[in-house]
Fold this sequence. Notes:
By secondary structure, the chain is an all-alpha fold. It has helices at about 1-10, 60-75, 75-85, 95-125.
Amino acid sequence: MENQNFNQQQNNNQQYNPNQQYNANQQYNANQQYYANQQYGAGQQPFYTVQNIPEEYKPISMWGYFGYEILFSIPLVGFICLLVFAFGGTKNKNLKNFARSYFCFLIIVVIIAVIIFAGLMSAGAITSI
């Protein structure tokens, strides 16, 4: 009995080895650490849960995205927050990438609005500002 407990404890303390052969029946320990810089072989993927994902890769919930969308749509304060988050104000990569994509979207909208405005001005539809 004591030997069986020792073997079971040894199995629970083993770290994931990316070079070992993949076994679909292998039991994973929920307390395994996530190593972002490990190289995984063909057919192998890291096993991780939300608890052991590094802080910079934590996912944003749907309500989080909704809240940030509302925050970024506030005229002056939202634009300042957008620039802060897009250019390094957060360690979360998901939030940083979302802010960058929202910023690119705003740039595209402004360019399209300027083109439409210039087209209407040259066509004579708008005579004065």
